Amino acid sequence: MMGDIIQLLPDHVANQIAAGEVVQRPSSVVKELIENAVDAGATSIQLIIKDAGRSLIQVIDNGNGMSATDVRMAFERHATSKIRTTEDIYAISTKGFRGEALASIAAVSQVETKTRRNEDELGVQLIIEAGEVRNQDPVVCVEGTSIAVRNLFFNVPARRNFLKSNQVEFRHIQDEFQRVALAHESISFYMHHNDAEIYHLKGGNLKQRLVQVFGKKLGTQIISVDEDTEIVKINGFVGKPEIAKKSRGEQFFFVNNRYIKSGYLHNAIVDAFDNLLPSGHQPSYFLYLDIEPSKIDINIHPTKTEIKFEDEALIYTILRAAIKHSLGQFNITPSLDFDQDPNWAFIPSATDETEIKMPEISVDSSFNPFLQTQSRTPKPSDIRATMDFYNDAVELEIENNHAHQLFESEAFKNEKLEVIQWQNKYLIVDYMGELLIIDQHRAHQKILFEKFIHAKKENALVQQMLFPIELELSTQDRQKLIQVEHQLLSFGFDISLDEETIQINSIPVDVQQEDVVSVFMDFIDELDYHDELAIESSFAKILAKNSAVKKGVGLKPEQAQTLVEELFKLQNPNYSPYGRPIFVQMNPTDIEKILQ
User: What is residue 550's DSSP assignment?
Assistant: First the structure.
Protein backbone atom coordinates (compact mmCIF):
# COMPACT_ATOMS: atom_id res chain seq x y z
CA MET A 1 0.00 0.00 0.00
CA MET A 2 1.43 3.42 -1.03
CA GLY A 3 2.21 5.82 1.80
CA ASP A 4 1.44 9.54 2.02
CA ILE A 5 3.40 11.50 -0.59
CA ILE A 6 2.36 15.14 -0.04
CA GLN A 7 4.50 17.14 2.36
CA LEU A 8 5.26 20.76 3.20
CA LEU A 9 8.32 22.31 1.59
CA PRO A 10 11.16 23.28 3.91
CA ASP A 11 11.31 27.05 4.46
CA HIS A 12 14.59 27.53 2.61
CA VAL A 13 13.24 25.72 -0.48
CA ALA A 14 9.97 27.69 -0.38
CA ASN A 15 11.96 30.94 -0.11
CA GLN A 16 14.12 30.01 -3.10
CA ILE A 17 11.01 29.26 -5.18
CA ALA A 18 9.49 32.60 -4.15
CA ALA A 19 12.78 34.31 -4.99
CA GLY A 20 12.51 32.99 -8.54
CA GLU A 21 9.42 35.14 -9.04
CA VAL A 22 10.64 38.31 -7.32
CA VAL A 23 14.40 38.23 -8.01
CA GLN A 24 14.87 37.53 -11.69
CA ARG A 25 18.19 39.33 -12.15
CA PRO A 26 20.38 41.93 -10.35
CA SER A 27 18.14 44.76 -11.56
CA SER A 28 15.23 43.20 -9.60
CA VAL A 29 17.24 43.64 -6.39
CA VAL A 30 18.12 47.22 -7.32
CA LYS A 31 14.47 48.07 -7.91
CA GLU A 32 13.27 46.61 -4.59
CA LEU A 33 16.02 48.19 -2.48
CA ILE A 34 15.73 51.66 -4.01
CA GLU A 35 11.95 51.64 -3.73
CA ASN A 36 12.22 50.63 -0.06
CA ALA A 37 14.56 53.61 0.48
CA VAL A 38 12.00 55.93 -1.13
CA ASP A 39 9.24 54.53 1.10
CA ALA A 40 11.49 55.13 4.12
CA GLY A 41 11.37 58.87 3.48
CA ALA A 42 14.94 59.23 2.22
CA THR A 43 16.02 62.50 0.60
CA SER A 44 19.34 61.02 -0.59
CA ILE A 45 19.84 57.52 -2.02
CA GLN A 46 23.12 56.00 -3.15
CA LEU A 47 23.45 52.87 -5.29
CA ILE A 48 26.79 51.04 -5.42
CA ILE A 49 27.23 48.03 -7.69
CA LYS A 50 30.13 45.84 -8.75
CA ASP A 51 30.34 43.45 -11.69
CA ALA A 52 26.86 44.48 -12.86
CA GLY A 53 25.42 43.39 -9.52
CA ARG A 54 26.91 39.91 -9.45
CA SER A 55 29.41 40.73 -6.69
CA LEU A 56 27.68 43.61 -4.90
CA ILE A 57 24.48 45.63 -4.85
CA GLN A 58 24.40 48.19 -2.05
CA VAL A 59 21.79 50.86 -1.37
CA ILE A 60 22.47 53.52 1.27
CA ASP A 61 19.74 55.95 2.30
CA ASN A 62 19.17 58.65 4.93
CA GLY A 63 15.60 57.57 5.61
CA ASN A 64 13.81 56.65 8.83
CA GLY A 65 15.80 53.53 9.65
CA MET A 66 14.46 50.51 11.55
CA SER A 67 14.43 49.18 15.11
CA ALA A 68 16.16 45.92 16.00
CA THR A 69 12.81 44.11 15.90
CA ASP A 70 11.69 45.67 12.62
CA VAL A 71 14.90 44.88 10.77
CA ARG A 72 14.57 41.22 11.76
CA MET A 73 10.90 41.15 10.77
CA ALA A 74 11.61 42.83 7.43
CA PHE A 75 13.34 39.67 6.21
CA GLU A 76 10.46 37.37 7.11
CA ARG A 77 8.07 36.33 4.36
CA HIS A 78 4.81 38.28 4.13
CA ALA A 79 6.14 40.93 6.52
CA THR A 80 5.00 44.45 5.64
CA SER A 81 4.29 47.77 7.30
CA LYS A 82 1.76 48.81 4.67
CA ILE A 83 -1.12 46.36 4.79
CA ARG A 84 -3.36 45.50 7.74
CA THR A 85 -6.61 44.49 6.02
CA THR A 86 -7.67 43.23 2.59
CA GLU A 87 -9.06 46.68 1.81
CA ASP A 88 -5.58 48.16 2.20
CA ILE A 89 -4.47 46.27 -0.92
CA TYR A 90 -6.72 48.50 -3.01
CA ALA A 91 -5.44 51.76 -1.54
CA ILE A 92 -1.70 51.33 -2.04
CA SER A 93 0.24 54.56 -2.56
CA THR A 94 3.75 53.32 -1.66
CA LYS A 95 6.20 51.14 -3.62
CA GLY A 96 6.88 47.75 -2.09
CA PHE A 97 4.01 46.21 -0.18
CA ARG A 98 3.94 42.44 -0.66
CA GLY A 99 6.35 41.57 2.11
CA GLU A 100 8.30 39.12 -0.05
CA ALA A 101 11.16 41.09 -1.54
CA LEU A 102 13.75 41.14 1.24
CA ALA A 103 13.05 37.51 2.21
CA SER A 104 13.44 36.47 -1.43
CA ILE A 105 16.66 38.45 -1.88
CA ALA A 106 18.15 37.03 1.32
CA ALA A 107 17.27 33.48 0.21
CA VAL A 108 19.64 33.67 -2.77
CA SER A 109 22.49 35.90 -1.53
CA GLN A 110 24.54 37.12 1.43
CA VAL A 111 22.95 40.23 2.94
CA GLU A 112 24.40 42.70 5.42
CA THR A 113 22.06 45.37 6.81
CA LYS A 114 22.99 48.34 8.98
CA THR A 115 20.21 50.65 10.15
CA ARG A 116 19.50 53.29 12.80
CA ARG A 117 16.49 55.43 13.68
CA ASN A 118 16.89 59.06 14.66
CA GLU A 119 15.79 58.41 18.24
CA ASP A 120 18.25 55.53 18.80
CA GLU A 121 21.84 56.01 19.97
CA LEU A 122 23.00 52.77 18.38
CA GLY A 123 21.92 51.06 15.25
CA VAL A 124 21.71 47.34 14.47
CA GLN A 125 23.66 45.10 12.11
CA LEU A 126 21.97 41.99 10.69
CA ILE A 127 23.79 39.40 8.57
CA ILE A 128 21.79 36.78 6.65
CA GLU A 129 23.15 34.11 4.30
CA ALA A 130 20.91 31.96 2.09
CA GLY A 131 17.91 32.91 4.21
CA GLU A 132 19.58 31.98 7.53
CA VAL A 133 20.38 34.64 10.15
CA ARG A 134 24.10 34.47 10.93
CA ASN A 135 24.50 37.42 13.24
CA GLN A 136 22.63 40.37 14.80
CA ASP A 137 24.48 42.97 16.88
CA PRO A 138 24.28 46.63 17.97
CA VAL A 139 26.48 48.84 15.78
CA VAL A 140 27.55 52.47 15.49
CA CYS A 141 26.18 53.82 12.21
CA VAL A 142 24.58 56.90 10.68
CA GLU A 143 20.84 57.47 10.62
CA GLY A 144 19.12 55.60 7.82
CA THR A 145 19.69 52.18 6.27
CA SER A 146 22.44 50.48 4.29
CA ILE A 147 21.71 47.09 2.70
CA ALA A 148 24.55 45.27 0.90
CA VAL A 149 23.66 42.22 -1.21
CA ARG A 150 26.70 40.13 -2.12
CA ASN A 151 27.20 37.13 -4.41
CA LEU A 152 23.70 37.01 -5.84
CA PHE A 153 22.50 33.46 -6.67
CA PHE A 154 25.65 31.96 -5.08
CA ASN A 155 23.56 29.05 -3.77
CA VAL A 156 21.48 28.67 -6.95
CA PRO A 157 24.14 28.21 -9.68
CA ALA A 158 21.56 27.38 -12.35
CA ARG A 159 19.98 30.82 -11.89
CA ARG A 160 23.38 32.50 -11.95
CA ASN A 161 24.22 30.78 -15.24
CA PHE A 162 21.10 32.24 -16.83
CA LEU A 163 22.32 35.81 -16.29
CA LYS A 164 23.39 37.65 -19.44
CA SER A 165 26.69 39.47 -19.95
CA ASN A 166 27.70 42.24 -17.53
CA GLN A 167 26.96 44.71 -20.31
CA VAL A 168 23.32 43.58 -20.63
CA GLU A 169 22.74 43.23 -16.88
CA PHE A 170 24.18 46.69 -16.28
CA ARG A 171 21.71 48.21 -18.75
CA HIS A 172 18.82 46.59 -16.90
CA ILE A 173 20.12 48.12 -13.68
CA GLN A 174 20.36 51.53 -15.34
CA ASP A 175 16.75 51.18 -16.51
CA GLU A 176 15.47 50.48 -13.00
CA PHE A 177 17.58 53.25 -11.46
CA GLN A 178 16.33 55.74 -14.05
CA ARG A 179 12.68 54.84 -13.52
CA VAL A 180 12.79 55.44 -9.79
CA ALA A 181 14.87 58.61 -10.20
CA LEU A 182 12.40 60.01 -12.75
CA ALA A 183 9.47 59.24 -10.44
CA HIS A 184 11.02 61.15 -7.52
CA GLU A 185 12.75 64.25 -8.84
CA SER A 186 12.99 65.89 -5.40
CA ILE A 187 15.24 63.08 -4.07
CA SER A 188 18.98 63.11 -4.77
CA PHE A 189 20.21 59.89 -6.41
CA TYR A 190 23.79 58.70 -6.90
CA MET A 191 25.07 55.62 -8.70
CA HIS A 192 28.55 54.07 -8.81
CA HIS A 193 29.59 51.04 -10.84
CA ASN A 194 32.99 49.43 -10.25
CA ASP A 195 34.11 52.60 -8.37
CA ALA A 196 33.15 54.92 -11.26
CA GLU A 197 30.42 57.53 -10.80
CA ILE A 198 27.64 57.00 -13.33
CA TYR A 199 24.90 59.33 -12.06
CA HIS A 200 24.98 62.36 -9.77
CA LEU A 201 21.39 63.61 -9.65
CA LYS A 202 20.58 66.47 -7.31
CA GLY A 203 16.98 66.93 -6.17
CA GLY A 204 15.02 69.53 -8.14
CA ASN A 205 12.02 69.87 -10.44
CA LEU A 206 10.97 67.41 -13.14
CA LYS A 207 12.50 69.23 -16.09
CA GLN A 208 15.82 69.51 -14.25
CA ARG A 209 15.74 65.76 -13.55
CA LEU A 210 15.02 64.95 -17.21
CA VAL A 211 17.95 67.11 -18.32
CA GLN A 212 20.23 65.51 -15.68
CA VAL A 213 19.38 62.02 -16.96
CA PHE A 214 19.04 62.54 -20.73
CA GLY A 215 21.28 65.54 -21.42
CA LYS A 216 20.97 69.32 -21.74
CA LYS A 217 19.73 69.16 -25.32
CA LEU A 218 16.48 67.52 -24.24
CA GLY A 219 15.47 70.67 -22.36
CA THR A 220 14.81 72.45 -25.68
CA GLN A 221 13.09 69.47 -27.30
CA ILE A 222 10.16 68.80 -24.97
CA ILE A 223 6.71 70.33 -24.52
CA SER A 224 4.92 70.47 -21.17
CA VAL A 225 1.62 68.67 -20.60
CA ASP A 226 -0.76 69.65 -17.80
CA GLU A 227 -4.36 68.47 -17.42
CA ASP A 228 -6.43 68.23 -14.23
CA THR A 229 -9.78 66.39 -14.20
CA GLU A 230 -11.85 64.58 -11.61
CA ILE A 231 -10.80 61.25 -13.13
CA VAL A 232 -7.07 61.77 -13.59
CA LYS A 233 -4.44 64.47 -13.23
CA ILE A 234 -1.81 64.43 -15.98
CA ASN A 235 1.48 66.31 -16.10
CA GLY A 236 4.88 65.85 -17.66
CA PHE A 237 6.41 66.36 -21.08
CA VAL A 238 6.24 65.03 -24.63
CA GLY A 239 9.04 65.28 -27.16
CA LYS A 240 8.67 67.46 -30.22
CA PRO A 241 8.08 65.45 -33.41
CA GLU A 242 11.61 66.11 -34.68
CA ILE A 243 13.19 64.03 -31.89
CA ALA A 244 11.02 60.97 -32.60
CA LYS A 245 13.02 57.75 -32.92
CA LYS A 246 12.60 54.56 -34.91
CA SER A 247 12.77 52.48 -31.74
CA ARG A 248 10.96 52.83 -28.45
CA GLY A 249 13.46 54.65 -26.31
CA GLU A 250 12.49 57.55 -24.09
CA GLN A 251 8.91 56.53 -23.27
CA PHE A 252 7.89 56.67 -19.62
CA PHE A 253 4.51 56.33 -17.95
CA PHE A 254 4.15 56.79 -14.20
CA VAL A 255 0.92 56.22 -12.29
CA ASN A 256 1.01 57.58 -8.73
CA ASN A 257 4.80 57.84 -9.10
CA ARG A 258 5.13 54.16 -10.04
CA TYR A 259 6.62 53.26 -13.44
CA ILE A 260 4.21 51.23 -15.55
CA LYS A 261 3.96 49.77 -19.05
CA SER A 262 0.74 50.29 -20.97
CA GLY A 263 0.35 49.60 -24.67
CA TYR A 264 -3.18 50.97 -24.41
CA LEU A 265 -2.09 54.39 -23.14
CA HIS A 266 0.84 54.40 -25.56
CA ASN A 267 -1.68 54.13 -28.40
CA ALA A 268 -3.46 57.21 -27.03
CA ILE A 269 -0.24 59.21 -27.41
CA VAL A 270 0.49 57.84 -30.89
CA ASP A 271 -3.08 58.79 -31.82
CA ALA A 272 -2.48 62.35 -30.55
CA PHE A 273 0.63 62.61 -32.76
CA ASP A 274 -1.34 61.50 -35.82
CA ASN A 275 0.23 62.81 -39.07
CA LEU A 276 3.05 64.55 -37.18
CA LEU A 277 5.63 61.74 -37.17
CA PRO A 278 7.56 60.11 -40.05
CA SER A 279 6.46 56.57 -40.83
CA GLY A 280 7.87 54.05 -38.36
CA HIS A 281 8.93 56.66 -35.79
CA GLN A 282 7.92 56.71 -32.13
CA PRO A 283 7.20 59.76 -29.95
CA SER A 284 9.16 60.45 -26.76
CA TYR A 285 7.19 61.13 -23.58
CA PHE A 286 7.57 61.45 -19.82
CA LEU A 287 4.04 61.44 -18.39
CA TYR A 288 2.77 61.26 -14.84
CA LEU A 289 -0.80 60.26 -14.01
CA ASP A 290 -2.31 60.77 -10.55
CA ILE A 291 -5.36 58.57 -9.96
CA GLU A 292 -7.31 57.64 -6.86
CA PRO A 293 -5.59 54.40 -5.66
CA SER A 294 -8.92 52.62 -5.26
CA LYS A 295 -9.54 53.15 -9.00
CA ILE A 296 -6.55 51.05 -10.08
CA ASP A 297 -5.13 47.57 -9.45
CA ILE A 298 -1.34 47.39 -9.45
CA ASN A 299 -1.09 43.87 -8.03
CA ILE A 300 -1.62 42.00 -11.29
CA HIS A 301 2.03 41.29 -12.18
CA PRO A 302 5.06 40.21 -10.09
CA THR A 303 7.09 43.26 -11.14
CA LYS A 304 4.10 45.60 -10.57
CA THR A 305 4.73 47.31 -13.95
CA GLU A 306 1.31 46.44 -15.34
CA ILE A 307 -1.88 48.02 -14.14
CA LYS A 308 -5.67 47.85 -14.47
CA PHE A 309 -7.74 51.02 -14.63
CA GLU A 310 -11.36 51.24 -13.59
CA ASP A 311 -12.03 54.02 -16.18
CA GLU A 312 -9.64 52.87 -18.89
CA ALA A 313 -11.47 54.26 -21.95
CA LEU A 314 -12.07 57.62 -20.28
CA ILE A 315 -8.40 57.96 -19.28
CA TYR A 316 -7.42 57.15 -22.88
CA THR A 317 -9.63 59.98 -24.16
CA ILE A 318 -8.40 62.50 -21.58
CA LEU A 319 -4.74 61.63 -22.24
CA ARG A 320 -5.09 61.93 -26.00
CA ALA A 321 -6.87 65.28 -25.67
CA ALA A 322 -4.21 66.60 -23.26
CA ILE A 323 -1.38 65.73 -25.67
CA LYS A 324 -3.20 67.24 -28.64
CA HIS A 325 -3.84 70.40 -26.65
CA SER A 326 -0.15 70.74 -25.71
CA LEU A 327 1.01 70.14 -29.29
CA GLY A 328 -1.48 72.73 -30.53
CA GLN A 329 -0.44 75.32 -27.94
CA PHE A 330 3.15 75.11 -29.10
CA ASN A 331 2.21 75.34 -32.79
CA ILE A 332 3.33 71.81 -33.54
CA THR A 333 0.14 70.63 -35.22
CA PRO A 334 -0.44 71.68 -38.85
CA SER A 335 -2.33 74.94 -39.23
CA LEU A 336 -3.23 77.47 -41.90
CA ASP A 337 -0.81 80.37 -42.07
CA PHE A 338 -2.91 83.49 -42.63
CA ASP A 339 0.15 85.74 -42.32
CA GLN A 340 1.84 84.22 -45.35
CA ASP A 341 2.64 86.65 -48.19
CA PRO A 342 0.09 85.85 -50.92
CA ASN A 343 2.51 87.04 -53.62
CA TRP A 344 5.21 84.47 -52.92
CA ALA A 345 3.78 82.12 -55.53
CA PHE A 346 1.24 82.53 -58.29
CA ILE A 347 -1.63 80.06 -58.49
CA PRO A 348 -3.26 80.45 -61.92
CA SER A 349 -7.00 80.26 -62.42
CA ALA A 350 -9.01 79.81 -65.61
CA THR A 351 -10.74 82.81 -67.25
CA ASP A 352 -12.72 83.25 -70.42
CA GLU A 353 -9.54 84.29 -72.25
CA THR A 354 -7.55 81.31 -71.05
CA GLU A 355 -6.73 78.81 -73.77
CA ILE A 356 -6.94 75.33 -72.31
CA LYS A 357 -4.71 72.73 -73.96
CA MET A 358 -5.06 69.02 -73.58
CA PRO A 359 -1.88 67.37 -72.19
CA GLU A 360 0.27 65.64 -74.74
CA ILE A 361 2.12 62.37 -74.32
CA SER A 362 5.18 61.74 -76.42
CA VAL A 363 6.51 58.20 -76.68
CA ASP A 364 9.37 56.94 -78.82
CA SER A 365 7.73 53.73 -80.01
CA SER A 366 10.92 52.53 -81.65
CA PHE A 367 12.97 52.65 -78.44
CA ASN A 368 13.84 49.32 -76.79
CA PRO A 369 15.77 49.72 -73.49
CA PHE A 370 17.01 46.12 -73.63
CA LEU A 371 18.38 46.20 -77.17
CA GLN A 372 22.13 45.95 -76.64
CA THR A 373 22.91 47.51 -80.06
CA GLN A 374 21.05 50.70 -79.14
CA SER A 375 23.14 53.57 -80.46
CA ARG A 376 22.39 56.03 -77.67
CA THR A 377 22.32 55.97 -73.89
CA PRO A 378 18.66 55.72 -72.78
CA LYS A 379 17.29 58.60 -70.72
CA PRO A 380 14.93 58.03 -67.77
CA SER A 381 12.13 59.70 -69.80
CA ASP A 382 12.64 57.16 -72.59
CA ILE A 383 12.32 54.24 -70.24
CA ARG A 384 9.38 55.58 -68.27
CA ALA A 385 6.74 55.23 -71.00
CA THR A 386 7.79 51.65 -71.63
CA MET A 387 7.98 50.58 -68.00
CA ASP A 388 5.33 52.52 -66.06
CA PHE A 389 2.57 50.11 -67.01
CA TYR A 390 3.67 47.64 -64.35
CA ASN A 391 5.25 50.01 -61.84
CA ASP A 392 2.82 49.05 -59.09
CA ALA A 393 3.31 45.36 -59.76
CA VAL A 394 7.10 45.69 -59.47
CA GLU A 395 6.79 47.58 -56.14
CA LEU A 396 4.57 44.80 -54.82
CA GLU A 397 7.01 42.13 -55.97
CA ILE A 398 10.00 43.90 -54.41
CA GLU A 399 8.19 44.12 -51.08
CA ASN A 400 6.70 40.64 -50.93
CA ASN A 401 8.30 38.08 -53.25
CA HIS A 402 11.07 35.78 -52.10
CA ALA A 403 13.17 35.42 -55.23
CA HIS A 404 14.97 32.11 -55.75
CA GLN A 405 18.62 32.06 -56.61
CA LEU A 406 19.42 32.15 -60.32
CA PHE A 407 23.09 32.99 -60.13
CA GLU A 408 25.08 29.94 -59.06
CA SER A 409 26.89 29.49 -62.38
CA GLU A 410 30.21 31.20 -63.06
CA ALA A 411 28.83 32.08 -66.50
CA PHE A 412 26.49 34.62 -64.96
CA LYS A 413 29.13 36.14 -62.72
CA ASN A 414 31.47 36.64 -65.67
CA GLU A 415 28.79 37.90 -68.05
CA LYS A 416 29.01 41.53 -69.16
CA LEU A 417 25.49 42.75 -68.42
CA GLU A 418 23.66 45.79 -69.64
CA VAL A 419 22.30 47.63 -66.60
CA ILE A 420 19.67 50.38 -66.76
CA GLN A 421 18.59 52.47 -63.78
CA TRP A 422 14.85 52.97 -63.62
CA GLN A 423 13.16 55.77 -61.64
CA ASN A 424 16.38 56.21 -59.67
CA LYS A 425 15.24 53.26 -57.54
CA TYR A 426 15.73 50.03 -59.45
CA LEU A 427 18.39 48.50 -61.65
CA ILE A 428 17.04 46.58 -64.65
CA VAL A 429 19.03 43.69 -66.13
CA ASP A 430 18.03 41.48 -69.09
CA TYR A 431 19.66 38.08 -68.68
CA MET A 432 18.90 34.83 -70.53
CA GLY A 433 15.32 35.80 -71.26
CA GLU A 434 14.61 36.91 -67.70
CA LEU A 435 14.08 40.44 -66.49
CA LEU A 436 15.89 41.10 -63.20
CA ILE A 437 14.62 44.06 -61.17
CA ILE A 438 17.03 44.99 -58.38
CA ASP A 439 16.35 47.33 -55.47
CA GLN A 440 19.49 49.50 -55.57
CA HIS A 441 19.33 50.51 -51.89
CA ARG A 442 18.97 46.96 -50.57
CA ALA A 443 21.61 45.68 -53.00
CA HIS A 444 24.16 48.25 -51.84
CA GLN A 445 23.19 47.54 -48.20
CA LYS A 446 24.10 43.87 -48.68
CA ILE A 447 27.39 44.68 -50.40
CA LEU A 448 28.44 47.11 -47.66
CA PHE A 449 27.28 44.78 -44.86
CA GLU A 450 29.60 42.05 -46.14
CA LYS A 451 32.42 44.60 -46.50
CA PHE A 452 32.01 45.89 -42.94
CA ILE A 453 31.90 42.40 -41.44
CA HIS A 454 35.01 41.41 -43.42
CA ALA A 455 36.83 44.65 -42.59
CA LYS A 456 36.07 44.15 -38.90
CA LYS A 457 37.92 40.82 -39.05
CA GLU A 458 40.77 42.07 -41.25
CA ASN A 459 41.29 45.54 -39.64
CA ALA A 460 39.12 48.27 -41.07
CA LEU A 461 40.46 50.94 -43.43
CA VAL A 462 39.82 54.33 -41.83
CA GLN A 463 39.78 58.00 -42.79
CA GLN A 464 40.91 60.56 -40.22
CA MET A 465 38.56 63.49 -39.65
CA LEU A 466 40.14 66.89 -40.26
CA PHE A 467 37.51 68.38 -37.96
CA PRO A 468 36.19 65.79 -35.47
CA ILE A 469 32.42 65.45 -35.16
CA GLU A 470 30.88 66.11 -31.74
CA LEU A 471 27.61 64.67 -30.43
CA GLU A 472 25.84 65.54 -27.17
CA LEU A 473 24.88 62.44 -25.19
CA SER A 474 22.86 61.55 -22.14
CA THR A 475 24.63 59.75 -19.29
CA GLN A 476 23.02 56.47 -20.27
CA ASP A 477 23.99 56.76 -23.95
CA ARG A 478 27.54 57.68 -22.96
CA GLN A 479 27.77 54.55 -20.81
CA LYS A 480 26.46 52.42 -23.68
CA LEU A 481 29.26 53.62 -25.96
CA ILE A 482 31.96 53.26 -23.30
CA GLN A 483 31.07 49.57 -23.02
CA VAL A 484 31.38 48.94 -26.78
CA GLU A 485 34.28 51.32 -27.52
CA HIS A 486 36.60 48.47 -28.55
CA GLN A 487 33.99 47.16 -31.01
CA LEU A 488 33.56 50.61 -32.54
CA LEU A 489 37.34 50.83 -32.98
CA SER A 490 37.40 47.46 -34.75
CA PHE A 491 34.98 48.86 -37.35
CA GLY A 492 37.11 51.97 -37.88
CA PHE A 493 35.56 54.49 -35.47
CA ASP A 494 38.02 56.21 -33.15
CA ILE A 495 36.08 58.08 -30.46
CA SER A 496 36.83 60.22 -27.41
CA LEU A 497 34.30 60.65 -24.61
CA ASP A 498 33.94 63.36 -22.01
CA GLU A 499 31.15 64.07 -19.52
CA GLU A 500 28.40 64.93 -22.00
CA THR A 501 29.77 64.61 -25.54
CA ILE A 502 31.37 62.14 -27.90
CA GLN A 503 34.09 63.22 -30.32
CA ILE A 504 34.46 61.10 -33.45
CA ASN A 505 38.05 61.29 -34.75
CA SER A 506 38.02 58.71 -37.55
CA ILE A 507 35.44 56.78 -39.58
CA PRO A 508 35.50 53.78 -41.98
CA VAL A 509 36.38 54.62 -45.58
CA ASP A 510 32.98 53.47 -46.89
CA VAL A 511 31.05 55.83 -44.59
CA GLN A 512 30.31 59.41 -45.64
CA GLN A 513 30.81 62.17 -43.08
CA GLU A 514 27.19 63.36 -43.42
CA ASP A 515 25.95 59.88 -42.41
CA VAL A 516 27.95 59.62 -39.17
CA VAL A 517 25.41 61.27 -36.85
CA SER A 518 22.53 59.06 -38.03
CA VAL A 519 24.77 55.98 -37.74
CA PHE A 520 25.55 56.70 -34.08
CA MET A 521 21.99 57.63 -33.12
CA ASP A 522 20.64 54.43 -34.72
CA PHE A 523 23.38 52.40 -33.06
CA ILE A 524 22.64 53.82 -29.60
CA ASP A 525 18.96 52.97 -30.07
CA GLU A 526 19.86 49.37 -30.98
CA LEU A 527 22.40 48.83 -28.19
CA ASP A 528 20.10 48.06 -25.30
CA TYR A 529 19.74 44.30 -25.09
CA HIS A 530 22.27 42.58 -27.36
CA ASP A 531 25.20 40.35 -26.54
CA GLU A 532 28.60 41.09 -28.07
CA LEU A 533 28.14 39.04 -31.25
CA ALA A 534 24.69 40.51 -31.90
CA ILE A 535 26.06 44.03 -31.36
CA GLU A 536 28.69 43.53 -34.07
CA SER A 537 26.11 42.30 -36.57
CA SER A 538 23.70 45.08 -35.61
CA PHE A 539 26.36 47.74 -36.06
CA ALA A 540 27.35 46.39 -39.47
CA LYS A 541 23.67 46.50 -40.51
CA ILE A 542 23.28 50.10 -39.33
CA LEU A 543 26.47 51.16 -41.10
CA ALA A 544 25.28 49.52 -44.31
CA LYS A 545 21.77 50.98 -44.10
CA ASN A 546 22.99 54.55 -43.55
CA SER A 547 25.85 54.39 -46.04
CA ALA A 548 24.07 52.62 -48.93
CA VAL A 549 22.95 54.56 -51.99
CA LYS A 550 19.39 55.70 -51.38
CA LYS A 551 16.32 55.29 -53.54
CA GLY A 552 15.91 58.39 -55.65
CA VAL A 553 19.66 58.83 -56.25
CA GLY A 554 20.79 58.72 -59.86
CA LEU A 555 23.73 56.48 -60.74
CA LYS A 556 26.20 56.78 -63.60
CA PRO A 557 26.12 53.75 -65.95
CA GLU A 558 29.46 52.49 -64.65
CA GLN A 559 28.25 52.82 -61.03
CA ALA A 560 25.12 50.81 -61.75
CA GLN A 561 27.21 48.20 -63.59
CA THR A 562 29.65 47.85 -60.69
CA LEU A 563 26.87 47.60 -58.11
CA VAL A 564 25.20 44.70 -59.96
CA GLU A 565 28.50 42.91 -60.50
CA GLU A 566 29.47 43.22 -56.82
CA LEU A 567 26.06 42.03 -55.69
CA PHE A 568 26.24 38.80 -57.65
CA LYS A 569 29.76 38.05 -56.51
CA LEU A 570 28.32 37.52 -53.03
CA GLN A 571 27.60 34.04 -51.79
CA ASN A 572 23.95 34.91 -51.10
CA PRO A 573 22.72 37.96 -53.03
CA ASN A 574 19.04 37.25 -52.43
CA TYR A 575 18.34 39.12 -49.21
CA SER A 576 19.33 42.39 -47.55
CA PRO A 577 20.92 42.36 -44.05
CA TYR A 578 17.40 42.97 -42.70
CA GLY A 579 15.97 39.93 -44.49
CA ARG A 580 14.20 41.78 -47.30
CA PRO A 581 14.33 40.50 -50.92
CA ILE A 582 16.87 42.41 -53.02
CA PHE A 583 15.57 41.54 -56.47
CA VAL A 584 12.79 39.83 -58.38
CA GLN A 585 12.84 37.87 -61.61
CA MET A 586 10.20 38.20 -64.31
CA ASN A 587 10.00 36.05 -67.41
CA PRO A 588 7.74 36.72 -70.43
CA THR A 589 4.99 34.60 -68.90
CA ASP A 590 4.97 36.75 -65.74
CA ILE A 591 4.63 39.92 -67.81
CA GLU A 592 1.85 38.43 -69.93
CA LYS A 593 -0.09 37.65 -66.74
CA ILE A 594 0.25 41.26 -65.58
CA LEU A 595 -1.01 42.53 -68.95
CA GLN A 596 -4.06 40.28 -69.05
Answer: P
Every domain of the chain and the residues it spans? 11-201, 206-329, 368-596
Confidence of residue 400 (pLDDT cuts 50, 70, 90): very low
Residue 430 near residue 388, CB atoms below 8 Å: no
Q: Distances from the Cα of 475 to the Cαs of 109, 254, 487, in angstroms?
A: 30, 21, 20
Give me the architecture of the 206-329 domain, per CATH.
2-Layer Sandwich (3.30)
Which residues neighbour 463 within 8 Å (Cβ) at sequence distance 6 or greater?
506, 507, 508, 509
The candidate with the shortest Cα–Cα distance to 17, out of 108, 97, 149, 98, is 108
pLDDT in tens, 324-376: 999 888 765 444 443 444 333 333 444 445 455 555 545 555 544 444 444 44
Residue 183, CA atoms < 13 Å, CB-side half-sphere: 24
**Which one, of 272, 274, 303, lies nearest residue 287 by Cα?**
272
User: Residue 216 has what DSSP assignment?
Assistant: G
153: left (phi over 0), alpha (psi -120 to 50) or beta: left
Q: Which residues pair with 222 in a beta bridge?
A: 239
The CA distance from 472 to 76, in Å, is: 47
Torsion, Cα 181 185 188 190, to 10 degrees, reads: 30
CA dihedral defined by 14, 17, 21, 23, rounded to 10 degrees? 100
pTM score of the predicted model = 0.65
CATH architecture of 368-596: 2-Layer Sandwich (3.30)
Q: Which DSSP category does 282 fall into?
A: B
Q: What is the CATH number of domain 11-201?
A: 3.30.565.10
pLDDT digits (tens, 9 = 90+) for 10-57: 666 666 665 656 788 999 999 999 999 999 999 999 999 999 999 999
Strands 132-139 and 144-150: unpaired
